Amino acid sequence: MEASREDILKALEQVIDPELKRNVVELDMVRDVRIEGEEVTVGIALTVAGCPLRASFEEQVAKALSPLGVQRVQLEFDVMTPEERAALTARLRGSVTERTKGIALDRSTRVLAIASGKGGVGKSTLSANLAVAFARLGQRTGILDADVYGHSIPHLLGIHQKPVAVDRMIVPPVRGELKLMSIGFFLDDNQPVMWRGPMLHRALEQFLTDVHWGELDVLVVDMPPGTGDISISLGQLLPRAEVVVVTNLAAAAGVIGAMATIWAITRTFDIGMTGNGAIAALVAITAPSGYVEFWAAPIIGVVAGIIVVLCVIAIDRVLDDPVGALSAHGVAGVWGTLSCGLFTSPRLATLNGIGKPGLVYNGSFHQLGAQGLGIAAAFVSVFCVSYVVFFVIKALYGLRVHPDEERYGLDIVEHGMWGYPEQFMPVPGSEYHPPAPPARRPTPRPVPIGLTGDGGMR
Fold first, then answer.
1. Do the beta carbons of residue 142 and residue 252 sit within 8 Å?
2. pTM for the full model?
């Protein structure tokens, strides 16, 4: 029995536009249906010329018409007229209950903003994994890559297809059931965008107003690191969004440990020492990061924060280490290496295929001893090589600068500016005496900002 036009149109309701997630009949994309015996010709109007999803339509149409006894299917593709695209845009936008005025995101959509205080803590990786997990659970999911400084989501998800513009609406590319929009689609490679304030706000607003997200259950937003303009914009554009803050447990604990220690010693909060606590904790967690469970990270971090404060104070009595580099990178690194011997998880040691459980798990000093031996070997080798290199430099050229030049400071002599200007800014009501320029070099220019040549205020 020959299939009728009505039967074919009914069957074509199974053909779904991969990007718009609606069937082609509902979207008025079926231009023509011609029946010639066992051969059927279907005309489909695409949103844009050169649509990359033609193969998907061919497969879906052949599968949908096969139960009707159609032996051969011929597809003819055309492009929608501007009027048809405008009607399609109005139809799609009319199906969404606006969350706020002008925002083309359904009111019922759950928005998860993934944020972090700094870059490199796994924020984008978490965003991508969350979006994929929601999609696999059957949730209608979209992911917005708002990290304009490091838009890595397309690379993480393996989506390289460009968005499609239909009239004034942007159709996001899809991967399975996951929709994605990123500023990276409009740039070459992973080129960062040096935008601030209004430009960032406008870019985010356009992604929320002009992009057809459709009916989403969850929208995951990968935020740029920090607490700047775009975080404020998101709060204005998407009220009631939920925020997930990605942080480094060890670094956060290191800040607390350093701040508490310097307060206990001086009864004041020292921002520099607090920053050293974060740095020391990041150094300490580097070695054990793949071998310890999450509960051990704050312990390692807080100990590193305490160590760095005590060591900075102790080392500064015998060595000139004004920024605490030896304490933050050297001593904290030693502690982090030893912590592998204390907290290495049996599960993670097995997973990595190397190492033994730490002391807290089985009471064995095997891994702790191996870590200590490694520290000793590294120290001896670095000390010996450094001693030889500096001995040769001293013999051939000399290590020390002229005493006047040392007192004046290499930052001024070589660069014409203070290395730490906040230490030399004049305070109203107090005298300021700049150091004399070195005898062997002319007075550098420019004079440091805020000072005249005689040390007074400009």
1. no
2. 0.56
